[in-house]
């Protein structure tokens, strides 16, 4: 990724960017825990949307188009106190104006931590407020 932003603040690392598939990791540490010491659901959502957005950007013409998260949901199925989580995002719909991604976040033991689905909007560059 070219720009600094939330992904850097949370320690998100891109491991793989492929055709309709992205793998990214994020530490579970003081940056990503909620006040009670467990992985913050919002951090998991940020990881999921980062993976989906990067995946969409890899599938569009960035000279002509830009992409934005349109909708995201998440089910947090297991708590996590420390270590590393890995998000695997796979495109389930590749439309001209939207892409839908399934994101599974797992821990080091391959246990499911979070299931997310993210819809990413694809819009032409040059529209007001998207430059």
UniProtKB/TrEMBL annotation:
Top-level taxon of the source organism: Bacteria
Domain Thioesterase, chain residue ranges per copy: 36-114
CDD domains: PaaI_thioesterase (cd03443)
Keyword tags: Hydrolase
Species of provenance: Bacillus norwichensis
Name of the protein in its database record: Hotdog fold thioesterase
Gene3D superfamilies per the UniProt record, alphabetical: Hotdog Thioesterase
Keyword Magnesium included in the entry's annotation: no
A matching Pfam family: 4HBT
Keyword Hydrolase recorded: yes
């Amino acid at each position: 990724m070219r720009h600094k932003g939330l992904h850097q603040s949370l320690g998100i690392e891109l491991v793989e960017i492929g055709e309709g598939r992205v793998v990214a990791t994020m530490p579970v540490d003081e940056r990503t825990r909620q006040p009670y010491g467990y992985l913050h659901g919002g951090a998991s959502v940020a990881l999921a949307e980062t993976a989906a957005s990067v995946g969409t950007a890899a599938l569009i013409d960035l000279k002509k188009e830009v992409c934005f998260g349109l909708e995201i949901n998440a089910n947090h199925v297991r708590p996590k106190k420390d270590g590393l989580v890995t998000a695997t995002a796979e495109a389930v719909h590749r439309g001209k104006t939207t892409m839908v991604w399934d994101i599974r976040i797992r821990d080091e033991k391959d246990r499911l931590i979070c299931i997310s689905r993210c819809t990413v909007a694809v819009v032409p560059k040059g529209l007001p407020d998207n430059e």
